[in-house]
Amino acid sequence: MTRVDATSVILAAAEKSNENVLVPPLGELIIGTISFGLLVAFFFWKVKPQVQKYYAERTERIEGGLARASSAQAEAQAVLEQYRAQLADARAEAARIRDEAAVQGRQIVAELRAQADREVAEIRARGEAQLAAERSQIVSQLRGELGGVALELATKIVGHELARPDEHSQLIDDFIASLDAGDAAAAAPAGSGG
Q1: 3-class state of residue 19 by DSSP
Q2: In this entry, which stretches build a coiled coil (predicted)?
Q3: For residues 111 and 129, what is the distance between their CA atoms, to the nearest angstrom?
Q4: Cα separation, 46 vs 55, whole angstroms
Q5: In terms of C-beta density within 10 A (0-12 exposed, 13-18 middle, 19 or more buried), how is residue 162 classed?
Q6: 105-121 pLDDT per residue, tens
Q7: CA angle 130, 131, 136 (to 5 degrees)
Q8: Which residues are CB-contacts of 133 (< 8 A; sequence separation ≥ 6)?
């Protein structure tokens, strides 16, 4: 650079220093305004629709999520109410079954007691019938033996044969009948006096 050029640059700078630094030159101001206008137009033409679309999608997702959460909560509440109703029904059913089981248990116990009482009565009746049969058999056997012994004793006492064999049974029966009548007469005053 030459000295003339340097001087001209210094003079130009000095002239510029006299101007206000805060106010730009008119050419720059026009170009800046046009550029800013184009930038704003580009923003409203391309960027703003994208931002609005993204904002709308996000709003829709959030609102959809809230709606889904709300419906899920309502569904969960309905399921909870249904569960509580089923639980109450199950408890009522369990109480009913428990009551029925208690009633059936009492019925079964009553039936078993009645059956046991019937069996005891049957066993007692069979035992009494068997005892009565054995008693009558023993009584008839004892009558026969007692009659034979009495006839034998009477024969030994008298010393000869008493009556014929067909009369022996008649004599034995008469003797036993007289013994039974004596026992009955002895039992009657004892029973009436007591």
Answers
A1: coil
A2: 66-100
A3: 26
A4: 15
A5: middle
A6: 999 999 999 999 999 99
A7: 100
A8: none
Mind listing the pLDDT tens digit for each residue in 89-146? 999 999 999 999 999 999 999 999 999 999 999 999 999 998 888 888 887 787 777 7
* CA pair distance 54, 47, nearest whole angstrom: 11
Q: Which two tokens stand for residue 31?
A: 């170009």
Helix (H, G, I), strand (E, B) or coil at 97: helix
Burial (0-12, 13-18, 19+ Cβ within 10 Å), 84: exposed
Looking up tokens 């066993």, which residue turns up?
123
Model confidence band, residue 194 (pLDDT cutoffs 50, 70, 90): very low
Long-range contacts of 138-146 (CB under 8 A, 24+ apart): 143/172, 143/173, 143/176, 144/172, 146/172, 146/175, 146/176
Q: How many residues does the chain have?
A: 194
Residue 117 identity (one-letter amino acid)? D
Where do the domains of the chain lie?
A: 33-134
Report DSSP state, residue 181. H
pLDDT digits (tens, 9 = 90+) for 14-55: 565 556 777 778 888 899 999 999 999 999 999 899 999 999
10: pLDDT strictly greater than 60: yes
